[in-house]
Write a structure and sequence with these properties.
Elements (H helix, E strand, L loop, with lengths): L35 H4 L12 H6 L6 H13 L6 H8 L6 H5 L7 H22 L5 H7 L6 H16 L2 H8 L7 H9 L13 E2 L7 E6 L3 H5 L1 H13 L2 E4 L9 H4 L4 H14 L7 E4 L2 H8 L1 H8 L4 H11 L2 E3 H8 L10 E5 L3 H4 L6 H7 L5 E4 L14 H4 L1 H17 L4 E3 L3 H13 L5 E3 L1 H16 L1
Parallel strand pairs: 2-3, 2-4, 4-5, 6-7, 6-8, 8-9
Antiparallel strand pairs: 1-3
Helix pairs in contact: 12-24, 14-16, 16-17, 18-20, 22-23
Length: 464
């Protein structure tokens, strides 16, 4: 059996494998995946032009069909799960652009995500035998800090003070930030200017005008801590469209941070917490304004099937919840938006967040809503559906590739001549804001609901 070349940039060919599965008494990584999903891929290669990592490396091992080839070979026992193989799989952004490009309907997300869960289980079992405590960053930051908005707000307090006193700029200028571990240094650079926090959202906000719907707002974890103003803007837009808005206090992180890094059981636990928090039968929808969170919430049925395959109660509970989850643009377009009246005179472009356009198939709805705003000129963005490199925590763990994709995205944004770039995902916003700061560009990064809220507010002021 031959392995892949040691460096992903030194080999553009798929590995040559031995014929037939290898004998083993131990369950192989990937054995819990429906094998037919591997066979759906006919290796036609149409996905390669849509894959961000393949566009950057030109390496077949970093393409969707190449990764499927690797996962299937590991599952068959024809290829060992070496660090090199894991490196190619870890480099995947899970942006799902290959699903959009695939004519055969390959469910790539239903391959890479459960495969990563099994990889982590395998690594934890091996580490347990060696007495390893695991990766500190994953344990204390990704799992111990990010999913908890209250903890994150406390952790951000010193950073906010440093920004006010310009100590962050001083630390960067003097090189003090180089003393931090690489991933913490990247976290510091990704931090946006932290706005003063608005008052906490109440548990209920009434509709303005005739009531048309009763919805609940999913506030998220990182989104709640860093983009609390977007949650307020979303709530006000819903109110302006005749919606009663409920904000359950018992809601939790969507679980994407855990699930996409291979921690399946904590993701399932968070899914059940959210299902219970939004269990009210009189809700017309559970509204999400973050593409990554919305995609994860809509995948809860798959999480149940993978993590609790023999528990029909869990599956029924989570699938009932999934049926109510709607992205804010998806919901408002279906409801029939009340056109805002206030002018917002600016030239803007729209970036398609991967987990909105590829995972949720939502493309035209945000553009339709933005087209209602008087004075807003929306210009097209080249490669709008190519990932910016954020991908949840990817820009912290795969920094080199994330930076390459950010540079590609910023080049296209600046080429539009727009003064604002609009997107519906917190991770994209953090990534693109950081890249624009590095490029010394004043382009404003906004959420669609911020633009709509501004228009509704100005229209109300004009009428008064």
């Amino acid at each position: 059996m031959t392995d892949i070349a040691a460096s992903p940039n030194h080999s553009t060919q798929l590995p040559v494998l031995s014929n037939g599965p290898a004998a083993s008494d131990q369950p192989r990584v990937g054995s819990g995946i429906d094998y037919e999903r591997f066979l759906d891929c006919v290796h036609c290669g149409l996905c390669t032009a849509a894959c961000p990592t393949y566009l950057e490396t030109g390496n077949e091992n970093d393409s969707p069909r190449g990764r499927i080839y690797l996962m299937r070979a590991v599952t068959d026992g024809r290829l060992e799960l070496t660090d090199t193989v894991k490196g190619h799989l870890d480099l995947c952004l899970d942006c799902r652009s290959c699903e959009t490009a695939c004519p055969s309907g390959v469910q790539y997300g239903r391959l890479i995500e459960p495969f990563r869960v099994e990889m982590q289980q395998h690594e934890m079992a091996r580490a347990g035998k060696k007495g390893s405590q695991g990766d500190w960053f994953q344990k204390w930051i990704l799992y111990g800090l990010f999913p908890y908005p209250s903890r994150l707000r406390w952790a951000l307090a010193p950073a906010k003070l440093m920004q006010v006193l310009h100590l962050d700029q001083f630390a960067e200028w003097t090189g003090l930030t180089k003393l931090l571990p690489e991933r913490l240094r990247r976290m510091q650079r990704l931090l946006p200017p932290l706005k003063p926090r608005e008052p906490g959202l109440p548990e209920f906000l009434p509709a303005i005008g005739p009531r048309r719907a009763r919805v609940a707002l999913f506030t998220g974890c990182v989104a709640d801590a860093m983009f609390h103003h977007v949650n307020w803007a979303t709530a006000r837009v819903l109110q302006a469209n005749g919606c009663d808005v409920v904000i359950p206090r018992s809601q939790a992180c969507c679980g994407a941070i855990h699930y996409h890094s291979g921690a399946g059981q904590p993701a399932l636990d968070l899914a059940r917490t959210n299902s219970g928090a939004f269990a009210a039968e009189d809700l017309d929808a559970v509204i999400v304004n973050v593409a990554g969170c919305g995609s994860m919430l809509k995948d809860y049925g798959h999480v149940a099937a993978e993590m609790a395959p023999n528990d029909p109660v869990v599956a029924q509970e989570l699938n009932r919840f999934v049926g109510k989850v709607k992205d804010i643009s998806e919901f408002l377009t279906a409801l029939g938006p009340i056109a805002p009246k206030g002018e917002v005179r600016m030239k803007a472009t729209y970036h398609d967040a991967c987990h909105l356009c590829h995972a949720q198939k939502i493309r035209e709805q945000p553009r339709e809503l933005l087209s209602l705003v008087p004075g807003l000129e929306l210009v097209p963005l080249s490669e709008s559906e190519i990932c910016c490199g954020a991908a949840g925590s990817y820009n912290l763990t795969e920094g080199e590739m994330a930076d390459q994709l950010a540079s590609r995205k910023i080049k296209n944004i600046l080429a539009t001549g727009a003064e604002t770039v609009i997107m519906g995902n917190a991770g994209c916003s953090l990534q693109i804001q950081a890249a624009l700061r590095q490029a010394k560009s004043p382009v404003w990064v906004a959420h669609p609901m911020e633009i709509l809220d501004l228009s509704y507010s100005r229209g109300q002021q004009k009428s008064n």
